[in-house]
Each structure stands twice: as C-alpha cells, then as structure tokens.
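Field reference: sequence -> structure
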Amino acid sequence: MKTQTIIALKFLLVMTILTGIIYPLLMTGLAQLGFPSKANGSLIMKDGKVIGSELIGQKFDSSIYFWSRPSAIGYNPIPSGASNYGPTSDTLKKQVGARRVFFAKMNSLSDPLSTPKEMVFASGSGLDPHISPEAALVQADRVIKARHLNDNQKEELLKKIKDMTQAPQFLCLGEPRINVLILNLELDKIGQNLPVR
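Structure field:
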C-alpha cells in the first residue's frame, strides 16, 4: 500500500511539472517565436501607447469616426456576452427600433429599415471589432461631412474601405468585414479638416 502511494505521488509530481510548467512554457515560447503579435493579444499601438486590440471592439460615437456595432455589455471585455434577449422580446424590439431610427437619422438614410443589421444588433460576445463594408460605406458620407474632407480625401477614404475589407475566413466562413479601429486609425491619417472652434 505504501509503495502504491509513493508511485502515485511521484506520478502526480511528474505530471504537474510536465503539464503545469514545461508544456505552458513551451507553448508560450513557440507562440512568441512564431507569431508574437497574436500571442500578445494583437495589440495596436499609437504614439508608443496601447490604444486597443484588433480582436476587441471599442465604442466610437463621434460623428468624425466610423461607429462599431452595438454592445450589450458596454464594450467591457470582462463579462463578455450577449443581451440574451430572444426574438420575441419587447425590450429587444425597442432597442433595435431605437438604434435603427438613430442610425438612419445620423447617416441621412431615408428608410430606417435599410440600416445594416450589425448596426442594430449586438454581437454574441458584445466585442465584435468588425462591421460589413456596406455598414462602413453607409457611414462614409457622415464622416466625410463631419471632417470636411475634400474630393481627393474622399476618394482616398473610399479606396481604403475597399482595400481594408477582409474576405471571409478560408473564403467560406463568415462574411466580408472591416476592422473599425484600424479603419478609424487610417481615417486619421487621411486628414481631419475640422473647423477651428
């Protein structure tokens, strides 16, 4: 009986070292060597400071930026999740209706029902960093007017939207999409001809 206990304890110690120390260090090392950016959270830097991640959506509500899709959790990554309202929920219907009307008004759409679906429904995680190219194009006029972009800058912006559109993953999973944070960073590079206050 004593021998069996010693063997079990030795096995536990070996497995703890192997799976609790060696394996995690090996995987971390390989990830840092192979793809350091992704291993460190796909962080985006600006002026030497971390301003976000390619993987986590952020709130943009200024008229001079492209807006992200709504978040049921206020873009907080800690309690990531959806609202869990079902299709028959009155609360969800009211939220979607209000979002449609507001988006249509702010983007000069004549019909609120033409609002892209991702601009009225929150994602399952509440942190989706992407919108469709259509949702970006619908917002382009608002951004162009708010920034007072000239014709050349307008063409540059529309080209960036086209160039930054990512194809579905493996050409079959999901839909074409564009990262809102990266698009807004590129937008700042185009120019900001805002009136002096």
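Note: The mean pLDDT is 91.
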